[in-house]
User: Which sequence fits this backbone?
């Protein structure tokens, strides 16, 4: 379906909530902007998009997403630079991942055109909600779920595609303590780990909660078969600097193909570091701690860009990473990526999608 931004029906709020938001103290995910975009899927096609005031919706308690889990989402960010230009960071790549998630969950595809125009139209309507202070952005949450009301186990025939936006502040992530998970599994090869589907997160809560009770912040997920190889951590991909090289687990069906991961791997060369995408074993990491060849470990994702790992618990022993300095790769790449997203550094890779 061809959708022109100008032709999307907009029902505006009677009174904006903008003045009630403290933009100096945003946090993450605490505020939802005035409007949301909603598109229904029925009779085998996506219907006309509508932009309406954000608020409660009437949904059936029998809707299939609640019972059988057909629910997928994306998370990305929009920025406004000093000239007032609004950009979204790599929405085309997020769209490709959304398509893979939708396909894996037997849900209907959404065209890139519909996805980009829907995002643009909603951001234009709520442009005043985009924070401009250092490190802040508008977080974009597109999601799709089965809203057909029926109790039988089946692939739904009706869905909703909704986009919410949320002004978020700088993410001051403190260094995290992680634990190599050797009992529980987030995803097995052939399962849904590569899809950004809701169930992956629900299933991760329990092992994460147990790890937190033991004093860790997150778990480092390992392969479902032998717990020998590292997959990812929490809602982040994971990277290491070993022997001066940037090392990250290769993509499989059990981990998410992170957009930040891809961006950092792309920037590695320009920051003068060799990169390796391959199987990373727990034994290799333990060995690297013992012979002091591991100098950095960090999580990478849209929310924080880079989140420093302070220590990794392997088979019950805490191994500590050296302190991060200005010369550390993780700080240099974080700055570079932030500068590109903010339009401070040239966008040579064409990552910033301009919202009209
Ligand atoms: C499970 C998981 N892994 C990795 C990531 C990082 O992906 P991205 O860089 O696209 O935000 C996320 C966040 O979306 C995630 O939820």
Assistant:
């Amino acid at each position: 379906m061809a959708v022109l931004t100008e032709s999307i029906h907009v029902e505006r709020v009677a009174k904006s909530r903008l003045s009630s938001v403290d933009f100096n103290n945003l946090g993450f995910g605490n505020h939802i902007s005035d409007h949301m975009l909603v598109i229904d899927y029925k009779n085998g096609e996506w219907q006309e998009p509508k932009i309406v005031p954000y608020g409660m919706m009437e949904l059936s308690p029998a809707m299939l997403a609640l019972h059988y889990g057909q629910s997928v989402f994306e998370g990305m960010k929009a920025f406004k630079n000093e000239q007032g230009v609004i950009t979204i960071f790599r929405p085309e790549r997020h769209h490709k991942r959304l398509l893979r998630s939708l396909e894996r969950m037997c849900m209907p595809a959404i065209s890139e055109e519909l996805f980009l125009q829907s995002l643009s139209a909603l951001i234009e309507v709520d442009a005043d909600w985009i924070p401009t202070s250092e490190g802040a952005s508008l977080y974009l949450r597109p999601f799709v779920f089965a809203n057909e009301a029926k109790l039988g186990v089946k692939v739904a025939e009706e869905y909703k595609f909704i986009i919410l936006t949320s002004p978020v502040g700088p993410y001051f992530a403190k260094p995290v303590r992680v634990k190599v998970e050797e009992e529980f599994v987030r995803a097995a090869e052939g399962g849904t780990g590569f899809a950004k589907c809701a169930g992956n997160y629900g299933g991760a809560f329990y092992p994460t909660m147990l790890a937190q009770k033991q004093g860790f912040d997150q778990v480092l997920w390992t392969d479902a078969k032998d717990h020998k190889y590292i997959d990812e951590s929490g809602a982040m991909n994971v990277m290491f600097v070993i022997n001066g090289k940037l090392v990250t687990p290769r993509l499989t069906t059990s981990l998410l193909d992170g957009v930040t991961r891809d961006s950092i791997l792309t920037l590695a060369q320009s920051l003068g570091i060799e990169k390796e995408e391959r199987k990373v074993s727990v034994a290799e990491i333990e060995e690297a701690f013992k012979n002091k060849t591991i100098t950095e470990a960090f999580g990478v994702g849209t929310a924080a860009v880079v989140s420093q790992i302070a220590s990794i618990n392997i088979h019950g022993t805490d191994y500590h990473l050296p302190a991060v300095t200005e010369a550390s790769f993780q700080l240099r790449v974080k700055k570079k990526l932030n500068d590109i997203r903010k339009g401070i550094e040239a966008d040579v890779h064409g990552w910033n999608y301009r919202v009209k």
Summary: DSSP finds seven helices and 19 strands in the chain.
